[in-house]
Write a structure and sequence with these properties.
five-stranded mixed sheet, 3 domains, 9 helices, D-Maltodextrin-Binding Protein, domain 2, 293 residues, Arc Repressor Mutant, subunit A, alpha/beta
Length: 293
Amino acid sequence: MIRQIKYFHAVIRCGSFAEAAEECCISESAISQQIKALEKNLGVQLLKRQNRSFIMTPGGEYFYEKTQKLLTDFDRICTETSRIDHDNRAVIKIGYLKCYGGLEFQQALAAFSEKYPKVNVQISYGNHEELYDGLRNGLIDLALNDLRRNPSDLYVNFHLIDSACRIELSSRNPLAEKKHLEISDLQDLTCILVASPDQKREEENFYRKDLGFDGSVRFADTIENARMLLLSGNAFLPMEGGSEPVQYGGAIRRIPLFRNRKQVTRSYYAFWKADNSGYYIEEFADILKSFFK
């Protein structure tokens, strides 16, 4: 039936049985017979023929609209099947938040690469908006990102975890002895944010408006550089991800963050384009999900 549906779409697209037959490299009578066979299988009339022209019936219009995605998905499945059969050609491009401090991504990457050693995994990182730009422009197949906007039907929004937010402090800071900190406790400290030069304003606005930080802000381009600044000054680093409070050689403390006596949380998702779903993308997402507790 897939072939008959493709013939039906060709007729609609070309606006002519003759042109559709030429495009599909079959005779005009053959393509007409295939459309009639499709209508017989469905038990409905899709086209009303008027001499050498035609119009779609209401049922035909509905069938045409709904089967557009079906054909796209079918072609994608065929392509992905071929890629799976030739693992050495498969490539998956994955992006993650550059300020993400959990180990889940690294663990998932190691597990995926062990399971599919012939798949070429390309890794990139960025801030929230950079990852979405990468998805939109086809530079990334899947992104580990936080949720800052309403989910879009254009993407698969694969929920990973609602994670407790934490901040990192120098262990020399008196606040490092507390079991948890309120955002109001941090107003006299400098907030260090990890951001690319063109994403600084975006990141600062998010942390000020959405999370409520109102002190001074300083930027670093990597987590490693941010921690150097943290150790050398009166500052704190908001930490994306991470399962439990962790000590880093005793020099840095990771402490849960509260606002109005409630734990601050962030939602993390794996995102990919709905029309770019494939075996390896979904497999990596499942593996990634398994490492989140």
